[in-house]
Amino acid sequence: MHFLQQDKPTLRFIFLTLTMPNVKADKFFVTVTHMFKSWSKLTKRAAVKEVVKGYLRCLEITYNHERDDYHPHNRT
What we know:
This protein is α+β, with helices and mostly antiparallel strands. It has helices at residues 2-7, 25-43, 46-51, and strands at residues 17-19, 58-64, 69-75.
């Protein structure tokens, strides 16, 4: 990002977290698949393509031992 800022000083960065409600293990794969498909759909929209020049997406998963569930969220 430092290189990009030096090369293109007018570029602006945003940090975005997209989250879903916590899910049990049996719904985890379906939930993450839905998140990935939704992200793909969002990034194909003309309005998004017009302003977004690139992104880095990370999937973070936290586990709650007390409730025995997972919290998937995308960070971009």
